[in-house]
Design goal:
- By secondary structure, the protein is of the alpha/beta class.
- It has helices at about 10-20, 35-45, 75-80, 100-105, 140-150, 165-170, 175-190, 195-215, 220-225, 235-245, 245-270; strands at about 5, 30, 50, 65, 90, 110-115, 125-130, 150-155.
- The protein has an eight-stranded mixed β-sheet with strand order 3-2-1-4-5-6-7-8, sandwiched between helices.
- The longest helix has 23 residues, at about 245-270.
- The structure holds 1,4-dihydronicotinamide adenine dinucleotide (NAI) and (2S)-3,4-dihydro-2H-pyrrole-2-carboxylic acid.
- Catalyzes the reduction of 1-pyrroline-5-carboxylate (PCA) to L-proline.
- Keywords: Amino-acid biosynthesis, Cytoplasm, NADP, Oxidoreductase, Proline biosynthesis.
């Protein structure tokens, strides 16, 4: 499979790390990015070919992955329009950008899959929500699935409306986990443990609890109750979090992420062309 990436930043790097030598031979991956340092790194680490701007190199690609920031998507799509003769699959990973707007910027092109991956893709532990527009063939849907499965799991969605909620849960989700980790490590330090001890204890707790939840038939609430002895230490911690409104704050934060996705789509898609 020949794959071109437009944008060679964080998320493209995570995807290329999983793909190179598996779904595509390194020489069949081409990256376009105006930043020479990003290209040097990707060429050196993964043996990809590269160019600083969209041109003939993308013609002949089976899949073109759009991995620029949402604010760059329109400009990139307008430039890409003339290179779509071979009818490749266009795979967009941008938050917010709606399929109809992307299709319009690509001159009414319909072979578009929107996906929302996440950074654990870097270590093959990602999860991606996926939605195909009407012009995507079964073979192209399979190609999109195999690209994202090279870096983790895929979940196909019933409608595009679900992609903003997916962005709020798993796309942005690693940041919430890191935030919680930061807080646990800060507390460990403030209570007299070393930074190294705090890191080891907090990380193993996260991994262990997540694995336990994944392997258990019980909901998270029941697993939590099993740690929480009445009048004990966990009880004190959970009572403190409840008093501070932590659960509702997380729910509100995730709704804000989804709303920002919708807002980005509306803001950046309101042009006439
Ligand atoms: N970082 C994350 O956790 C996730 C990001 N995304 C989406 O992935 C996309 C990329 O995000 P990141 O990789 O985090 O950003 P990034 O800033 O690391 O990478 C974007 C890259 O695009 C390049 N670029 C800018 N203008 C360009 C142009 N005209 N042509 C080609 N390349 C150009 C930049 O030089 C940069 O290397 C965004 O749309 C974001 O919504 C999706 C899921 C998760
Ligand atoms: O923060 C963002 O907008 C992107 C999308 C999901 C994760 N990072």
């Amino acid at each position: 499979m020949k794959i071109s990436f437009i944008g060679g930043g964080n998320m493209a790097t995570a995807l290329i790390a999983g793909l190179a030598g598996k779904v595509a031979q390194a020489g069949d991956i081409h990256v376009i990015d105006p930043n020479p340092e990003a290209l040097d790194k990707l060429r050196g680490q993964y043996g990809v070919t590269s160019s600083p701007e969209i041109g003939a190199a993308v013609a002949g690609s089976d899949v073109i992955v759009l991995a620029v920031k949402p604010q760059q998507m329109r400009e990139v799509a307008l430039r890409l329009q003339s290179q779509l003769d071979a009818r490749p699959l266009v795979l967009s990973i941008a938050a917010g950008i709606r399929g109809t707007d992307l299709s319009r910027w690509l001159g009414g092109y319909g072979a578009i899959v929107r996906t929302m991956p996440n950074t654990p893709a870097l270590i093959g532990q990602g999860i991606s929500g996926m939605v195909a527009m009407a012009g995507v063939s079964a073979a192209q849907k399979d190609a999109a699935d195999s690209i994202l499965r090279a870096v983790g799991k895929t979940v196909w969605l019933d409608s595009e409306d679900q992609i903003d909620p997916v962005t709020a849960v798993s796309g942005s989700g690693p940041a919430y986990v890191f935030f919680f980790l930061e807080a646990m490590q800060q507390a460990a330090l403030e209570m007299g443990l070393s930074a190294e001890q705090g890191r080891e204890l907090a990380l193993a707790t996260f991994t262990g609890a997540a694995q336990l939840a994944a392997q258990s038939e019980e909901p998270a609430e029941v697993l939590r109750q099993r740690v929480t002895s009445k009048g004990g230490t966990t009880y004190a911690a959970i009572a403190s979090m409840e008093q501070a409104g932590v659960k509702q704050a997380i729910v509100d934060a995730m709704k804000a992420a989804a709303a920002r996705g919708r807002e980005l789509g509306e803001e950046l898609g309101k042009d006439a062309v």
